Amino acid sequence: MNISNYFSPTYAVARQKFLDACNALEIPVENHLNDEAKGAEGEELYMDVARIGPINASKVLIISSGTHGGEGFCGSGVQVGMLQNDMFTKLPQDTAVLLIHAINPYGFSHVRRVNENNIDLNRNFLDYSKGLPENPAYADVHPLIIPDDWDGPARAAADTKIEDYIADKGLSTYQAAVSGGQHIHEDGIFFGGFGPSWTNKTLRNVVSKHAGSSKHLALLDFHTGLGPYGHGEPIYVGNPEGLSRAMEWYGDDVTSPEAGTSSSAVVRGTIDNGVTQMAPNASHTCVAIEYGTLPVIEVLNALRADNWLYVKGDKDSEQGKAIKKQVRDAFYCDADDWKEMIWTRGISMIQMALVGLNKA
Ligand SMILES: [Zn+2]
Questions:
Q1: Residue 113 Cα, ligand 1 centroid: separation in angstroms?
Q2: Which of 252, 292, 324, 326 has the fewest CB atoms within 10 Å, i.e. is most exposed?
Q3: Order of strands across the sheet with 216-229?
């Protein structure tokens, strides 16, 4: 068993490994084509969905990767490794597992957090009939986020103002202003969109079909970029009533942005909203596993650089290539020790989810 081999250097390779591993076990896979975009190598983009377990199972565990595009290297590696080791064939009774590979295939392929419309999908799952939420704190920092140049005086001036902002208000206030989600600037970062994205609609259909009548639904959504290097923080998301259940299943280190115990700021429009609405009669235990890569300010800077590159830069320039590497490094530590930490914690969390679901 070579853990590093579960992980892939590109979306296309990751997808092929996932499909091959499912094929070897004769697990059927649904391929949902995103016809609104193409991949970095011109390839077709798919959200692939594999279901294991009885069709009428009342307990369903959803394990998803790539909600934030390039963060998908991590979750894909765990999904592929568990398939290659045939770790889903002996499921508890009345239990199904739904593996969703590349919730945001555009971002995975292009190694971006956002989708083809610059939308952060974990800010997109809102009830749009109620109007768009406001984030005036983001509006204040938006002009600093996209300076006119990246290596010149405009950037230097913007950076000074950001440093002043952090010195005055604190890093966590800056993080909340920037990453809480915004629906004003479609060329900005952490933009949640003006309506449901392709992923939003597709994911809802998938959950409705495979878990719509479930009685107990658990979600483990894999992320990277927050917290200490390689550490997997279980962040509880969703209805408050499920938090104590999540702590029973996964232990006391389950954190909650609302309670201020998480490395994540409080955010709106996360995918669990869509998942839980499509399984309305189930109990919901939704957790994001967040693995650390680089310090948070470096991750935020990388996302800012990525946004600048696509709005004002040239991807094919030397500067563009350097930014692409910076962004990739913020999502994915291509190192054996990091992958081992991802893997060990990942399978442990999934096993705890299956035990917990079976007690539900
Ligand atoms: Zn993420």
A1: 7
A2: 252
A3: 29-33, 46-52, 95-101, 59-64, 216-229, 283-292, 232-237
What is the reported pLDDT for 267? 85
Query: pLDDT below 70 — which residues of the chain?
Result: none
In sequence order, the 6+-apart residues with CB closer than 8 A to the CB of 305 are 150, 323, 326, 327
Q: What amino acid is encoded at 194 in this protein?
A: F
Find the helix packing angle between 171-179 and 136-145, rounded to 10°.
90
Q: How far is the CA of 290 from the centre of ligand 1 (A)?
A: 7
Reported as a single tens digit per residue, the pLDDT across 245-295 is: 999 999 999 999 888 888 888 888 999 999 999 999 999 999 999 999 999
Please give the model's pTM, rounded to 2 decimal places: 0.96
CA of 30 to the centre of ligand 1 (A): 24
Are 217 and 209 a contacting pair, CB within 8 Å? no
Distance 61 CA to ligand 1 centre (A): 19
pLDDT of residue 259: 84
Query: How many whole angstroms from 197 Cα to the centroid of ligand 1?
Result: 17
C-alpha 67 – ligand 1 centre gap (Å): 7
- Classify residue 43 as exposed, middle or buried by CB count within 10 Å of its CB (0-12, 13-18, 19+): middle
Distance from the alpha carbon of residue 122 to the mean position of ligand 1, in angstroms = 8
From ligand 1's centre to the CA of 288, what distance in Å? 8
Contact predicate 193/181, CB 8 Å: no
CATH of 3-129+194-293+333-359, one of 3.90.1150.10, 3.40.630.10, 3.40.50.300, 3.40.50.980: 3.40.630.10
Distance in Å, CA 72 to ligand 1 centroid? 9
Hey, where are the domains in the chain? 3-129+194-293+333-359, 136-179+298-327
Taking each continuous run of H as one helix and of E as one strand, the counts in the chain are 12, 7
> pLDDT value at position 258?
85
Which residues on neighbouring strands pair with residue 237, listed in sequence order? 286
Give tens-digit pLDDT for 100-139: 999 999 999 999 999 999 999 999 999 999 999 888 899 9
* CA of 94 relative to ligand 1 center, distance in Å: 31
